[in-house]
Write a structure and sequence with these properties.
It is a single chain. The protein has about 375 residues and is an alpha/beta fold. The protein contains 13 helices and 14 strands. Strands 2-1-3-12-11-4-5-10-8-9 form a 10-stranded mixed β-sheet, sandwiched between helices. A two-stranded antiparallel sheet has the order 6-7. Helix 7 packs across helix 8 and helix 9 packs parallel to helix 10. It is globular, with a radius of gyration of 21 Å. The two termini are about 15 Å apart.
């Protein structure tokens, strides 16, 4: 029997509630398959900081180091609460970015997907959605402005100033582009390369390398598109996109827009892959305003489990069962509050009810050999 160690980092805000549902799914998957999961919970985020002064404690690092994969909930506090933690120790700078760096998880995959039958979730008109939205954003995750050198001070005019560096070397650019081309080969063989080469030299180099890598994938049609134009086209005609690749900061912004066109960030799971280790997390934040109310949408957290099953454990068929189970709950007419607009006819359920319904569907799914 295959056995995997999974670090479970529930995180802050709605993290623990949505993680609870995700863990139930993992346990059912374990029951249904010839596989064993050793779940290793660990503190991560603001909760860890308040407990021990470190948002990414040594003990958690040791657990993650041992794990075959990491399942991570959202982290972070409200704008006001954040001020209680020194800037460099806040969970984003003190835990999340160090984790991305530690495991060099340079390839972030963010599917943006909504079948035609669920078009009513989206703020876009049905005629804009057409046959449904089904694209995947590939975001570089360990370079660019997020990780460049930073300088804060007072300049010789006596003014406070800040300097942040956007740096990439060609190896960093090439490896993410290669991932995107490989993905395009497995999908529709169309790749949108997102850039800002009319202003940024980093995009000029990025595009040069995109042209070089393209030579190894002659079957893939590459379309170069400016990031601002891409933002517009995501709203006007999302159907033209299949795989989109971009640097870190562009990917942060456009992937939230991806959640926007679906109707909720709650529909945005993600996989963060390095050569040795991968971790899985919702693309959204910890939503402190709704934390503890049992109303958050656990889709992105359970979807992150599905991505883990597929990418880290090679369990494609069972991953598909998990996706189908969640879609099934939606097509039965249920959803959490984020997606049940008044008058939409959608029956509102809470976090645990959503989880329960997913489990019910998954229990009925065909067992995979
Ligand atoms: C995301 C998040 C993070 C990011 C934050 C929490 C640092 O917004 O994963 O998109 O900006 O990368
Ligand atoms: Mn983000």
């Amino acid at each position: 029997m295959k056995s995997y160690k999974i670090a479970i980092l529930a995180g802050d805000g709605i993290g623990p509630e949505i993680m609870e549902e995700a863990v139930k799914v993992l346990k059912l998957v374990e029951e249904r398959n010839d596989v064993q999961f050793e779940l290793m919970p660990a503190a991560f985020g603001a909760n860890a900081y308040f407990e021990c002064g470190d948002a990414f404690p040594e003990e958690t690092k040791a657990i993650c180091d041992q794990a075959d994969a990491i399942l991570k909930g959202p982290i972070g506090l409200s704008h006001e609460e954040s001020k209680k933690i020194p800037i460099d120790k806040q969970p984003e700078r003190g835990a999340l970015l160090p984790m991305r760096r530690r495991y060099n998880t340079y390839a972030n995959f963010r599917p943006v997907s909504l079948p035609k039958g669920l078009a009513h979730f989206s703020p876009l008109k049905p005629e804009v959605i057409g046959e449904g939205i089904d694209l995947i954003m590939v975001r570089e995750l360990v370079g660019g402005l997020y990780f460049g050198e930073k300088e804060v001070g007072v300049n010789d005019k006596g003014l406070r100033y800040v300097k942040e560096t956007l740096e990439y070397d060609e190896e960093q650019i090439r490896r993410i582009l290669v991932e995107a081309f490989k993905l395009a080969m497995r999908r529709k063989k169309v790749l949108h390369n997102i850039h800002k080469s009319n202003v940024l030299k980093s995009s000029v180099l990025w595009n040069e390398i995109a042209e070089e890598v393209a030579k190894d994938y002659p079957e893939v049609e590459v379309k170069h598109i400016l990031v601002d134009a891409a933002a517009t086209l995501l709203c006007l005609n999302p159907g033209q996109f299949d795989v989109m690749v971009m640097e870190n900061m562009f990917g942060d912004i456009l992937s939230d827009q991806g959640g926007g066109i679906l109707g909720s960030l709650g529909l945005m799971p993600s996989a963060c892959q390095g050569d040795e280790k991968s971790y899985y997390e919702p693309s959204h934040g910890s939503a402190p305003d709704i934390a503890g109310k049992n109303i958050a949408n656990p889709y992105s957290m359970i979807g992150s489990v599905a991505m883990m099953l597929e990418n880290s454990f090679g369990m494609e068929a069972e991953a598909k069962n998990v996706w189908d189970a969640m879609q099934g709950v939606f097509t039965d007419g249920y959803s959490t509050a984020d997606l049940s607009k008044p008058g939409s006819g959608v029956r509102m359920i809470n976090t645990t009810e959503f989880g329960e319904k997913v489990l019910e569907k998954l229990r009925k799914a065909p067992k995979v050999a």
